[in-house]
Amino acid sequence: MMKGDSMKSKVAILHTNDLHSHLENFPAIKRFFQTQTAALSQQGYRVLRFDDGDAMDRFDPLTEATNGQGIVQWLNEMHYDAVTIGNNEALTNSHKQLDHLYDHANFPVILDNVLDSKTGQLPHWATTHRDFVLDNGTRLRLLGLTFPYPTFQAMGWTAESVFGTLDRCLQEWAGQYDQLILLSHLGINYDRELAKRYPELKVIIGGHTHHLLAHGEVVQQTLLTAAEKWGHYVGQITFEVDQAGLYQQQAQVFRSTDLPREAGDQAEVAAAEATGHRLLAAQKIARVPQRYQTSLTDDNPLVQLGLQAMMASTNAQAAVLNTGLFLHDLPAGIVNMDQLQQILPHNIHVMKTELWGYDLWRLFQEMEKNKNFLIRFPQKGMGFRGKYFGRLVYAGISYDTEKQQLYWHHELVVPEKRYTIALLDHYEFIPFFPTIGIVGKNQIDFNGNIRTVLAKYLSQEFPLGGGSHGTQSD
After folding, report:
1. Do residues 293 and 213 share a domain?
2. For 13, 183, 187, 348, which has the most beta carbons within 10 A of its beta carbon?
3. Model-level pTM?
4. Of 68, 14, 82, 21, which Cα lies nearest the Cα of 229?
5. Is 466 helix (H, G, I), strand (E, B) or coil?
6. Where residue 40 sits, what CATH number does that domain have?
7. Is 470 among the domain residues?
8. How many domains does the chain have?
9. Comparing C-alpha atoms, which of 226, 343, 331, 250 is closest to residue 286?
10. Secretion signal: which residues (predicted)?
11. Most distant CA pair in the chain, distance
């Protein structure tokens, strides 16, 4: 052994990211964590386990029924040393729900760039860092950053600048650590830029953009890692370290389908899903007098019902919806939240948008141009949990393709007049309708989502006690 080797400690990190409540892979990953931790420990490694955020997703019935706390129970069984949050934790929970998401967690939540807007302080459920002191005295410090969406503000949180946060942390922490590791729910482009700007960051454990770095990526002095999404992979990082630096860094991933499975795995997952379905099914919503059918390619009764719900929710006189949102028909009879969860599993909010008439015309030019292409477009992400985008359907507004004229309740749209229309925040985030983001005055309703908006409308139109309010049009 060369002189100095004994002064280096060996560290192994097992990491996950963007699990999105895909429980089907949890039992195998949990077992892998246990066996791999034991094997690496025998080889002299200090083993750490981290999750990089977006562990929860409300498409999953257990997550929806428990506001994410059911998934935290599964995370507890992984025995993580630390986690950070993603946009699914932050933006699909109300402020109160996120305040209580980690009430029973057995791990710390590391987060440096989000504050409670009311107090101006770090949320009570988070901490700025966690330190790990190794057997050779080296001090590893872990920090966490999540993507700073402007919509954090609407949920009562303040998302601070990534670079400004790092500048502040590095200044405040000078002399308190030897090596710095970042849990980054920022995406691959941010990670690469951080590696270029901040040589202090020795390892960045990434996520958010669902990218896979099977053997890591070295940018200048920094090792970048990421394990794709949904528990398809588990990441492993190994290195030797002392106060001066990291050595022999290696990154690899293990495909979860290659991990050993046991006979009880499927039953364990099925039991969790059954619990979620049962809890949601207990929430009765309405007594619907007829079946509302959906169709991907055509206007249909169910999308019309959704349009009415959006207009009622926003007090707008017009609305737009895409048919691909509705994954199943709405049955006649008593409807519960479990059925609505399966019909509309998306993390998408209703949005009220105000536009001048000439901008409204331009928006519908964009919609008309893209509508046929979008019918079978395989839309992914941005809250959408379906397969295809589907057909755009309008209510209260119509477009004459021959004359290229737009009508608002049969009256020609006036260019210099202001109009308010009900849309989805999803339409602002996808690239097909740029007018919404460029000139729209957009007000997103974060008190619920398209599913809860429809549930409220159904409960008012078709109350459980029987009898309709009579406002539902044919």
Report:
1. no
2. 183
3. 0.86
4. 21
5. coil
6. 3.60.21.10
7. no
8. 2
9. 331
10. none
11. 86
